[in-house]
Amino acid sequence: MSVTHYQCLQEVKQEIIDYVDLTGVNGTENLLDANIYIWSAPVLNTHKERYKSSLSEVPAIVIAPSRTVEYIPGSGTNLHSDVKLPVLIQICDREISVDEDDKIHSWLKWSQGIRQHFHEGDLRNQVFNSDGYLNYVEVGHIDILEERLFGVHHQMVQYIPIICHSREPHNTSGIV
Amino acid sequence: MPGLSSPTFARIQVDGNWMCFKRIQDKTNISLMDNNDEVSCGKFYHTKEKVDEGIVVPKLHFLFQPSPEELDIILPWIGFTETTDVFALDGAVSSAPVILDRVATVDDLGNAYVDKAIFRGQKGRSPLSVELICICDQVPDIDGGTWSASAPTHTAAYPFHRAVLTAEGSAREFSSFVYVIDNHLAVNHNGNRVPTAFEIGGPGQTHHLGIDTPYTSSETVLLTNPIASVAGAAGSIVFTRGGQSTTFAFHNMKTEANPPDVAKPEEIRLKTFYRIYGSGSTHPVQITHDPVA
Question: Helices in A20-122 by DSSP H: which ranges?
Answer without folding.
Answer: 48-54, 101-118
